[in-house]
Recover the amino acids of this structure.
């Protein structure tokens, strides 16, 4: 029987990643990151797409070599169709098209956010169905009810900014390097949440972080006017206070979703799921509420091709292939 061997490509933002999966098991997962964006305080789309063009061949080659798999052994090629930066997506999609055409093998398109959720099935423990997944990243914040591998329903989403963006914009106000989320997380460990920031009153399961960002900005402006050294003198406490508020917003909504659905299998996914404050708060809330909590390994939190490969495996089983006229989607809901 022919083994299912898939090359997966992820290029939705500034990380170029390739992974090899065989019969549901990840054999390799290679990532090339773009450090140049630190100079600009955020991802520059044109710079990112050009870097993908430079990185994609070496990354794919390394993924194949690390897995000890030849191109001729591939049975399909998977790629991120969206959501993401259009220029970055184009590089990955175009490469996948060309390689699939040259090898005469099928292609599988993958939704980036759906893949973050299915990263939970790369390793044990794996959640049973149904479960709730809080997906949090720089561009997305959602609560998703997962009925099956490929059947999901969005229960709540951000109506403006994402949680990861709130971390990064706060970091910029504080003069921290980009991406600021990990830096704030590190500094928060040495501080105390002594400052209280606003929590938006959104009645349903949706999120809003624009008001919080404004609240943080005005708080800093007021205190810096009174003391120009305020940020430097209180940096750890500010970070701890901001992190506590962002995390409490996420956990409170997740708790509400669990109460409304009766689902007690709870997972997190996406770049912000690497945040130690969120992980600790989720475990603490889980113990109180009797949740079965699932937290992905750090390597599968940020953008990576292993999650694309895992998702494509379930689509391969269903023979859910696409043809050569497929185009990337900057916005793409599952």
């Amino acid at each position: 029987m022919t083994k299912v061997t898939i090359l997966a490509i992820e290029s939705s933002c500034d990380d170029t990643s390739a992974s090899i999966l065989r019969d549901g098991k990840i054999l390799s997962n290679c990532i090339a990151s773009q450090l140049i964006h630190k100079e600009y305080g955020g991802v520059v789309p044109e710079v990112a797409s050009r870097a993908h063009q430079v990185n994609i061949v070496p990354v794919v080659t390394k993924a194949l070599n690390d897995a000890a798999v030849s191109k001729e052994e591939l049975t399909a090629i998977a790629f991120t169709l969206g959501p993401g930066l259009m220029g970055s997506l184009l590089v990955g999609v175009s490469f996948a098209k060309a390689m699939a055409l040259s090898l005469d093998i099928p292609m599988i398109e993958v939704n980036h956010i759906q893949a973050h959720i299915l990263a939970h099935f790369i390793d044990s423990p794996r959640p049973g169905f149904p479960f709730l997944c809080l997906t949090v990243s720089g561009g997305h914040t959602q609560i998703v009810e997962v009925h099956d591998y490929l059947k999901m329903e969005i229960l709540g989403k951000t109506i403006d900014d994402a949680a990861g963006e709130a971390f990064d914009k706060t970091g910029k106000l504080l003069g921290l390097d980009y991406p600021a989320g990990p830096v704030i997380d590190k500094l928060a460990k040495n501080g105390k949440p002594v400052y209280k920031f606003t929590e938006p009153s959104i009645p349903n399961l949706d999120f809003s972080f624009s008001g919080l960002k404004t609240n943080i900005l005005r708080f800093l402006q007021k205190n810096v006017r009174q003391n120009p050294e305020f940020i430097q003198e209180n940096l750890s406490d500010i970070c701890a206070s901001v992190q506590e508020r962002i995390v409490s917003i996420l956990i409170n909504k997740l708790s509400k979703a669990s109460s409304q659905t009766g689902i007690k299998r709870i997972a997190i996914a996406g770049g912000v799921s690497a945040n130690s404050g969120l992980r600790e708060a989720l475990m603490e809330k889980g113990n109180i509420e009797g949740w079965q909590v699932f937290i992905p390994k750090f390597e599968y939190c940020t953008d990576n091709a292993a999650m694309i490969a895992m998702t494509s495996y379930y689509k391969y089983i269903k023979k859910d292939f696409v043809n050569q006229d497929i185009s990337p989607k900057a916005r793409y809901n599952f």
